[in-house]
Specification:
Radius of gyration: 33 Å
Number of strands: 13
Oligomer: single chain
CATH architecture of the largest domain: Up-down Bundle
Number of domains: 3
Distance between the termini: 7 Å
CATH topology of the largest domain: Multidrug efflux transporter AcrB transmembrane fold
Shape: elongated
CATH class of the largest domain: Mainly Alpha
Structural class: alpha+beta
Number of helices: 13
Helix content: 40-55%
Order of helices and strands: HHEHEEHEEEEEEHEEEHEHHHHHHH
Length: 491
């Protein structure tokens, strides 16, 4: 390695590390924190006995899509645990009830004709005093939870009771749904635009033909959208729809309204229409909340532990290896810049979060990269004590030390990969940071440690004074003549 090549390699390696990290921080990018560091909550859902693994996997995937549709959730961790449980971790969630509804609602969807509608309230008697068969006369709710015969829609202080018939079509007849804000009319309103399958479109057209045959104002012109036993909405077929033609399925718009929570209801309905129903029911077994304060305390404790460990390592390296200790300290900063930069990038583009287990992996990685420096520096000592000159010792020591570093890091990397593949939950965070740190250590050892030590060995901190490399060598003096030394260095 020539001096010029060493300088260029060093500048590029250090420049990318520090420059890219500074650029990310300048634009406001930072590591995304997990549940245990920024707060949030976790919920454990249990399926009925005998639920298959494939059913649980399907349910977990639907939950993940629903949660991602909520927005503001950083990498939700949704994993199947045991024979019939799913654990959902949602960091940074503030609307707890909405998120619980997204993961726990079965989402059984059907479109049903309305046979009649009734008004019931505990405080108000129905005008005609008639209570539909199967409904509790006080609450207005179904006595038997059978959506095929009755359903209900809460409306503030009153209950509109809908008598519904068998389904015209179900959620499997819908492929997608989009939320839009329709600006027509006074103030505009939130709507959901569904997309039907070819078969579902024909079913919908046939259903609207039947409904359009009833006169305007008749409850039987309404099509009830029933989700998990509740009538989410019951829009009526427009009066201009021809009963002989029906409504074009490509022009269907479900109006949610203009109330304060209309946008949220529209997004929830669209998510259920888009991602379908869960394949089984779940019972909410446990909900655990982590406050933002507790998460902040955990992060602070982890950072303090890492800083203390880093200072102790730096003090040891400076005391024992002198100027080589400075090389190692700068190398740790380069290593840290690459590691933090990758964690930030993974958070921005993959949604990866940094958990307390991940912070532990970062702390452990400080020991890994410190070991690499110690292996190299001790090999320099060995070569020097064998009688080689200082510069040939630096070059020769790296060849053998790098093989040792590469072998050790490969074993660590394999362990991290296996741990990531087999583990669940936060253990994956530890495995991820450990694996990233191991790869970065191999890179930094070759493109930073090698040229940096080479340049220091050629300067005044290499061969003069107690703080120099030679000063840290202890007993033994190199005896190789200058011509051999130069030939070795050039090689």
């Amino acid at each position: 390695m020539t001096k010029r090549r060493a300088i260029v390699t060093l500048l590029v390696t250090v420049g990318i590390a520090w420059g890219s990290l500074a650029a990310m921080l300048a634009v406001g990018w930072e590591p995304k924190l997990g549940l245990d560091l920024q707060g949030g909550f976790a919920v454990t859902l249990v399926a009925p006995e005998g639920t298959s693994v494939s059913t649980l996997d399907t349910a977990a995937e639907i939950m993940r899509k629903r949660v991602e549709n909520l927005g503001g959730v950083q990498e939700p961790e949704i994993a199947v645990v045991g024979d019939r449980a799913i654990v959902v971790q949602l960091p940074g969630v503030t609307d707890r009830e909405r998120a619980l509804q997204a993961v726990g609602t079965t989402g059984e969807l059907s479109f049903r004709p309305v046979l009649g509608e009734f008004f019931e309230s505990p405080a108000v008697t129905s005008p005609n005093g008639i209570h539909p068969v199967g409904l509790d006369p006080v609450t207005g709710l179904t006595v038997v939870d059978d959506v095929g015969t009755r359903s209900y829609l809460p409306d503030q202080n009153a209950l509109f009771i809908y008598d519904v018939d068998s389904a015209f079509l179900t959620g499997s007849d819908i492929t997608d749904a989009q939320v839009q804000f329709n600006q027509q009319g006074v103030g505009g309103q939130w709507v959901v635009v569904p997309e039907f399958t070819s078969d579902g479109g024909e079913k919908f057209r046939d259903a609207t033909k039947i409904l359009a045959s009833y006169p305007a104002g008749d409850p039987r012109r309404q099509l009830a959208i029933v989700v998990d036993g509740e009538v989410f909405s019951a829009p009526a077929v427009a009066t201009d729809v021809d009963p002989a033609v029906g409504l074009d399925p490509n022009a269907v718009v479900i109006t949610v309204g203009t109330q304060a929570n209309a946008q949220e209801e529209a997004e929830n309905l669209a998510a259920i229409l888009r991602y379908g129903a869960l394949p089984t029911t779940f019972e909410r077994e446990r909900v655990e909340s982590v406050s933002a304060t507790l998460g902040s305390d955990s992060l602070t404790a982890g950072l303090i532990a890492g800083l203390v460990g880093l200072l102790l390592v730096a003090a040891y390296l400076l005391f024992y290896y002198r100027s080589l200790g400075v090389v190692a300290m700068m190398g740790l900063s380069v290593f840290g810049a690459y590691l933090i930069g990758l964690i930030i990038l993974l958070g921005e583009f993959q949604g990866t979060t940094l958990t307390l287990a991940g912070v532990t992996g970062v702390i452990v990685s400080v020991g890994i990269t410190s070991d690499s420096y110690i292996v190299y520096f001790e090999r320099i000592k060995e070569e020097f004590r064998k009688g080689r000159g200082l510069r040939p010792s630096i070059v020769q020591a790296f060849e053998s030390a790098y093989r040792t570093i590469l072998t050790g890091d490969t074993v660590t990397l394999l362990g991290a990969v296996l741990l990531y593949m087999l583990a669940i939950g936060q253990v994956k965070g530890f495995a991820l940071t450990l694996g990233l740190a191991t790869v970065i250590d191999i890179f930094v050892a070759y493109f930073y440690t090698r040229p940096m030590t080479f340049l220091v060995g050629r300067g005044r901190f290499g061969d003069g004074g107690r703080f120099s490399i030679r000063g840290a060598m202890g007993s033994g003096v190199g005896t190789v003549d200058e011509e051999t030394e130069q030939a070795t260095v050039k090689a």
